[in-house]
Amino acid sequence: MNMVTRYRSGDQGRRLDPARKALKLPFEMIIEILSWLTVDALLRMKSICKKWCALIEDHHFIVKHMDRASPLPIKCQYSRKHDQVVLFHSKNIRCMSRVAGLFVEKHHSLPVCRIRNPVIGHVLDLPNAHMDVCRMKCAFDSLTGDAKLISAYIHNDEVGYEVMSIGQDGDWRALKHPNQGLLKKNGKWATRRQFFLTDEVHDGVYFCSEIITDGEDWCLEVQALDPWNECFITTTLPQGVFNGCKRVWVFNWNQHIAVGDIVEQELHVLVLEDLKEEQWSQNKIIVPLKFLQHQPLLDDQVLIPVKADCDELKLRYKGGKTLFYDMTNEMIKKVVYKWFDADLLGFYKPSLVSLKGMRQDERVRHRMGID
Fold first, then answer.
1. I want to staple 121 with a disulfide (CB 3.0 to 4.6 A). Which of 39, 42, 182, 361 is the partner?
2. What InterPro entries does this protein map onto (predicted)?
């Protein structure tokens, strides 16, 4: 059938095109495009229509966007008091930990604490923590969006823990680990403690290691707290593996707890392969530290193993520089020096995550032009 070209009166012979249908992107493609935008842009996009607003607030979209978000710069300082890099929101507020774009913050001298998402301006004020709190960590389940907050404190020379389910609990709940209160009863005490964050070792588990003595004998004990099940697992380093516990350090070895000691020019490592079964590796791993041939440790120097990730080993001189060591090629890849009381530039991944009970910071709404 031949198509007859139609003309309108007064068109002077011009062809009348068939009515064009408005082009419409599949919603799956819209989701893909939006997932690559910045948080600021997405907050403005929420006002376009209800469907887009619902999408941007959907938990699955938030997780997808969080994986793709580009890191943002953040100022931090190296603290003499804590011998580590710390983040400060203001003069009196210290960032205790970060997860999923959320900052767990505490007043430097008061038990006042909160959780904050700086890019969307949401804040959750928390009940006061224990006066002696020294560590706080938020465990975040990306599948459900649930969050639990763990705080650790040292009181009367013993470690204590508190937990809070965000959006469910109105206050902190005390958790008692198996041997709490037993050290002094048995005439023992801890001479050194180390804490581990949940996002670095066995995701979702909070670790504390203690070197315990009664004045003569020593042992190293690792306490692991699973915040989701609110249960403890305690394991002890086998006796005789190292020549005493005074020089050993507990650190992260490829997502497993490990104990290490630097003997002359080598790092000796024993790995906790299965926490629940309390199974340690049968043999020690020996890592040659060839740079010590030319830079031997002085009597007052302490070199601490911090983390092993594949072939890279991170070591830190106590109170000094940090080394990144290539264990395969046996050479130093990078050296980072510490600058006390000077601003440093770090990075973090932003997110749209908002926990139940968070309130909007009106200053951020005004800055972003959100109605």
1. 361
2. F-box-assoc_dom_typ3, F-box-like_dom_sf, F-box_dom
Please tell me the distance from the alpha carbon of residue 74 to that of residue 96, in angstroms, as a whole number: 15
Mean pLDDT over 47-61 rounds to 93
Both tokens of 57, joined, read 């607030």
How far is 322 from 209, CA to CA, in rounded Å? 22
**Residues contacting residue 247 through CB under 8 Å, at least 6 positions apart:** 261, 262
Does residue 276 sit within a domain?
yes
Three-state secondary structure call for residue 96: strand
Q: How many domains does the chain divide into? A: 1
Domain that holds residue 270: 240-340
Residue 335 DSSP SS3: strand
Are the CB atoms for 289 and 296 separated by under 8 Å? no
Nearest to 326 by CA among 293, 289, 360: 289
The answer to the question of residue 134 being in a domain is no
Q: What integer pLDDT is reported at residue 76 of this predicted model?
A: 66
Could you please report the per-residue DSSP string of 257-324? Answer: EEEEEEETTEEEEEEEEETTTTEEPSS-EEEE-GGGGTSPPPTT--EEEEEEETTEEEEEETTS-EEE
185-194: list long-range contacts, CB under 8 Å, 24+ apart: 186/214, 187/214, 187/215, 188/212, 188/213, 188/214, 189/157, 189/213, 190/157, 190/158, 190/159, 191/246, 193/154, 193/159, 194/249, 194/250
Domain assignment present for 268: yes
